[in-house]
Each structure stands twice: as C-alpha cells, then as structure tokens.
Specification:
Elements: H1 2-16, H2 19-46, H3 55-59, H4 71-92, H5 99-122, H6 126-150, H7 152-156, H8 159-178, H9 189-193
Length: 197
C-alpha cells in the first residue's frame, strides 16, 4: 500500500515538473533577468556620452581595428541579453549547491562591468578602465566555469562575452598606448562629461 502511494506521489512530482512547465518557469525568470540586465547596461552607458558623440573620445587616436560606433551598442545589447538568459538558467537551477555562489559572482561581475563606461568616457581614466576590463575578464572567466558546472548552456552563453572582453581590452590598451596624455586632454572631465540622470 505504501509502495503504491509512493509511486503515485513520484508520478505526481514528474507531472508537476514536466519539461514544458520547467521551460515556462525558465521563461518567467528570463522575462525579468534579461530586461533587468539590459536596463542596468543602458543606464551605465547613459552616464556619459560615448562614441563620436563624446568630444574627448573623438579626439583620441584609435587603432585601425576600432569598429564603427554602431557596433558597440549592438555587441553590448547581445551580450546583456545572453547574460540575462544565463542568469535565468542559474536562478532556475534550484537543486544546485553552486547556485548561490554563481549568482554572487554574476552580481560582482555586473557591478564591475557597469563602472567601465563612466570611468572611460566620463572620467577619461584610460588606465583605470583597462584595469576594469582585466577585472571583468577574470570575474567572467570564473563565472563561466561556475555556470558551466551548473548548466552547460549557461556557460556557453558567456563565451562570446569573454571573446568581446579580450577585444575590448586590446582596444583599451591600444588607446592608452596611442594616447599617453589621454587623461589630460579634457581638464574638467568629470564635471563636464558625466550626465546627471
């Protein structure tokens, strides 16, 4: 009798956690996490003008491989969407003991990420910005390893971000090398370039 009850209970649990329901639960998280990450990224980018709209940046010598202005928001939008999806997968992985540490590393990485644009475009601190990119890469690499251990797809979604960070670090380094006086080109950088929201 007890065995029959246990079988019914197990089959009931399987019905509760069907693949379709699991998919819907993930989508519910994704509907929150993707816009949330995009909003934070957009807000950070709006703190200082970027690309050719930034008078300071327009005067800098840039490496020949510098993409056109439109490529940066396009790349970051795609990266933020993938970050949001990866986060949704991890939040949804309730059975994993690494879920908490994974979310913590994600949050740390995102905070560091959001400081780059104001530091580079707003404060004109090219060297500090390069250090931020290095910190972002280290945190994202750790995050990728942890995410991969929980959900392989979540780890795979972070690979384009790692590749982009290597490229962004190269561009940042080249700008620093080509413009040794970059930080002094605009005397009152912080006061004139940071936009108050």
């Amino acid at each position: 009798m007890f065995a029959g009850f246990a079988r019914k209970r197990d089959s009931g649990l399987r019905e509760i956690a069907s693949k379709q329901q699991l998919r819907l639960a993930f989508l519910r998280w994704a509907v929150v996490t993707v816009p949330f990450v995009l909003l934070l990224g957009f807000t950070s980018a709006r703190l200082a003008p970027s690309g050719s709209t930034n008078a300071w940046y327009a005067t800098l010598a840039k490496p020949p491989v510098t993409p056109p202005d439109w490529a940066f928001p396009t790349a970051w939008t795609a990266i933020y969407v993938m970050l949001g999806l990866a986060l949704a997968m991890i939040i949804h992985a309730r059975g994993s003991r690494m879920r908490g540490p994974a979310i913590t590393v994600f949050a740390l990485q995102l905070v560091v990420n959001l400081t780059w644009s104001p530091v580079f475009f707003g404060m004109h601190q090219v060297t500090v910005a390069l250090g931020i990119v290095v910190a972002m890469f280290v945190l994202t690499l750790a995050m990728t390893v942890i995410f991969w251990g929980i959900r392989v797809m979540a780890g795979l979604l972070l690979v384009p971000y790692l590749v982009w960070l290597v490229f962004a670090g190269y561009l940042n380094y080249q700008i620093m090398t080509l413009n040794p006086d970059a930080e002094t080109l605009a005397p009152s950088a912080t006061a004139t370039q940071i936009i108050k929201l």
